[in-house]
Fold:
Amino acid sequence: MEAFGLTTEMVIVLAVLALTVGLFVTEIVRVDVAAIGIMVLLGCIASLPGLESVVDVSTLFYGFGSNAVISIIAVMIIGAGLDKTGVMSAVAVWITRVGGSTESRIVVLISSVVGVISSFMQNVGAAALFLPVVSRISVRTGLPMSRLLMPMGFCAILGGTMTMVGSSPLILLNDLILSVNNSLPADQQMNAFGLFDATPIGVALVITGILYFVVLGRFVLPTVSTKVGAKSQSLLDYFNKVYNLDGEIHEIDIRDGTALAGKSIDELETAYKILIVATHYNKKTFMAPPRDVLIETPARLAVIGARHDVEAFRADFGLVELPELEKFSESLGASKGGIAEVVIPPNSSLIGKTGREIVMRRVYGLSPLVLYRAGDVFTRGKENMLGNMPYQAGDTLVCHTSWESLARLEKDRDFVVVTTDYPKEELRPQKVTHAMVFFLIALALILGTDLRLSLCLLVGALGMIGSRVLSIQEAYDAVGWNTVFLLASLIPLGQAVQNTGTAQWIADLVLGVLDGMPIWTIQSAVAVLATMFTLVMSNVGATVLLVPLAVNIALGVGADPALFALTVAISTSNSFLIPTHQVNALTMGPGGYSVADFMRAGSVMTVLFLVVSITMLNWVF
Structure:
């Protein structure tokens, strides 16, 4: 093969390429800002006399309307729609119900479900969705989050390789293939990949990840003591410190034949200075039950009160307290409700009225625990019961409430909501059918038609908006615009690397080093190179830069260029060694991980990824 000489344009592109890698590695500026700057720089360079061939200025911004970028936007909107209807939350509840307290079983359930979900939505979105789920499971089972979060995060990354819409590199791949085809003769041009062409490789990788943590998790996963459910716990600590309030919820089992049957909520709360925040009867849960409700058996009660008061209530009726929340684990979980502060403002219509008069629970969904007035704290143990105290301007009520009720009160002039650090997302379970229908329509269009991927996905995204699963503003908010600008801005650099012959020149250098080696060895070297690139820069950037290079290397050794291109797109998901991937960064803090923890667990995973992916790529293709 003849030496390929460097031209002025190639030198400039190499310099821009080195600048790009340097900016990504050092993170002097955000990577999306760096990518935009590189795009603008290429445009300015190509505007100089004699350098017009570096990049076509007239198509410099075409990346923002590319198939890959529009597809990613649509995937994010569809994923947000499914989440908004509670589909993902329902999956989470199922995991907590059947997972038990066995670490390996929980790891298998969480990791497999996250892997499947991340094959149809951005893996960082799937990981973010399951972060509170893992926190809840950790609280209920006593397992440290550090034993659960890393397997979940790794499998979210691995799950992105199961379909061609599961990760940004795979979404981008077909566009890059089309771009490279423009510079190849007809007999060397590549075909685009179908939605499930990479599925066997992705499934094998997810299974490998799950088996890895089941078999070796005890050795590679750290045991870190973290403040599980930090927000919720810190809130309870705050109220305990300020008001001497125990906010723990106790689940009490009421069996048939107990003397408790027929007594009212009010009677029990008055006698035992407790608060019954929910009841479960006849397979239904009732939140904030009114005081005149009579207890029917068998049932479960969710009770808040001082430990000695709860014990006295339980002992007098021979009741059993469950060691953890069971019937109320979801409805009274930190994501559904908790303790909050509201203030009675001077213009409130409630001034002079008591909680009993206005039926606070039934009307507002508030179950008062403490009233703070002019430096005095009144609790249910005081002589003046909270329900009988007329409210005054400035009264602060500490209540147990659902977050949905609290969000409604923010618009009510009779209250000023002090607590702002609570989940405010409004789920729309009534729209679940619409969401699933449009998701399935998009999937059917991808599988059964020749329409472009972006158009198929936009049908689903538009259906989510048109059927009001999401508002248009919520759809805009669901899009990770930093990812969109990063991807769109790097596309011109990939074109410059290919069109100026820079990719061919680098390929010649690589081939000179690997001359005479088997094709699978060269393919493995490409996979290792992609892995190294994605550890120091974004996987999108690594894919854009390396796909043209891999294609040229494949053509140079007589291998399948499409296979080498897919090798790059798969290998740029091999980001486990250090927490540079968004998913790893997301789990690092809540899991209490250090870089050393990722290096210990990620080093083995990196090797397994390379071995399994190369083996499966060559077996499938």
